[in-house]
Design a protein that fits this description.
Elements lengths: L10 H14 L4 E7 L1 H11 L16 H6 L9 E8 L15 H7 L2 E8 L9 H11 L18
Antiparallel strand pairs: 1-3, 2-3
Amino acid sequence: MAETVFVYFLETQVKSLVLRLRDRFPGAELVLDGWRPFEIWVGNRYLSPSKFAGLMQWGLWSGREIEGWGATSLTGAGIRLLDEWGFLDESEPRLAHIRWQRPIESLFRAMRIYHFGLGKGPIFFRGELNRFIKQSQDIQPTNKPKAPKNCEALVI
């Protein structure tokens, strides 16, 4: 998960990192939040007078932009946009006091969370991963290894 990290890099740097992740970790997933270029511009106008604020560099209009970066892969392993959602799409109790902004966020789609599948491999969509983990926890191993007699060990 890259939370408000990529906005501080140039597009070429973000693209290079995403492509390296795809090539070195096929089947990995990347979740990041992205801002539109307009919000980057507005944010920088607000932050530019500050001596301590880092100016934002990169924004994206759509997750399909990153998906297009994977089309040039030599291995044929692309980048797939699996899902995208807004900060207020889910009814998170901690955000109840600002839920009234949900229609505005949906209209402008200013800040979104993007979920990508990198390369070839097993891909989990939001919610499926939790089901997979729960199912794997329900499986009881048939043969638990035994610890050696003269050794203290924790056997799981």
